[in-house]
Amino acid sequence: MAKEITKEQVMGLLLSACPSYFERWEKYLKENYEDGDEQLVYIEVADFADHIIELYKLNETEEFKAVFEVIELLHIQGNDFVKELATIGLLEDIQLSLSDKQEHDFFLKYLKPESLKGWNYLIDFWLGKLSNEKSNSTQLKPSMDSSKKRTKKQRKDAKNRKKQK
């Protein structure tokens, strides 16, 4: 059996599938982390999702096949955290950036079976089609540890808001 993919491997896999993100990634790291800071993968994949949406809007989709193959790999070979991240972190961020059914439908051709399940789960969740029992599943609940932590930039922004009051 193949070794499970961990959160520390996620961004490297996404970068290998989407080289156009590399320069933005380098800038993101410099702006958001200091030496020794824990990297916040949920926030990182949100930035990656923004990049995917920008490519979509520019009609520069050459890397999408490889990107969505990695997303499928995360769903299949990721540990529980990574599987959740692939759906709640990545697919959901992409979905929430799309404005209509035509845009949602565009991405369907890139989704592989497990990713498509996650994609449809999110749609059903937001449409209220899931029972409370299923929507309360711990399998797809975001990790509170990840969402409570902040990057260097977020900490600076919070300090500046306090100073302005």
Helical residues, percent? 55-70%
Mean pLDDT: 84
Number of strand elements:
0
Question: Class by helix and strand content?
Answer: mainly alpha
| DSSP helical segment count | 10
Estimated radius of gyration: 17 Å
Strand fraction? under 5%
Shape: globular
Number of domains: 1
Biggest sheet details: none
Question: If you had to describe this structure to a student in words, what would you say it looks like?
Answer:
The chain has 10 helices and no strands. By secondary structure, the protein is an all-alpha fold. The chain is globular and about 45 Å long. It has one domain (7-158). Helices cover 69% and strands 0% of the residues. The longest helix is centred in the N-terminal third of the chain and has 17 residues, at 41-57. Mean pLDDT is 84; it is low at 133-152.
Brief characterization of the structure:
This protein is mainly alpha-helical and 165 residues long.
Please write out the topology.
Elements: H1 7-17, H2 22-32, H3 41-57, H4 64-77, H5 80-96, H6 101-108, H7 113-126, H8 132-135, H9 144-148, H10 152-164
Helix pairs in contact: 1-3, 1-4, 3-5, 4-5, 5-7
What are its keywords?
globular; 165 residues; mainly alpha; 10 helices; 69% helix
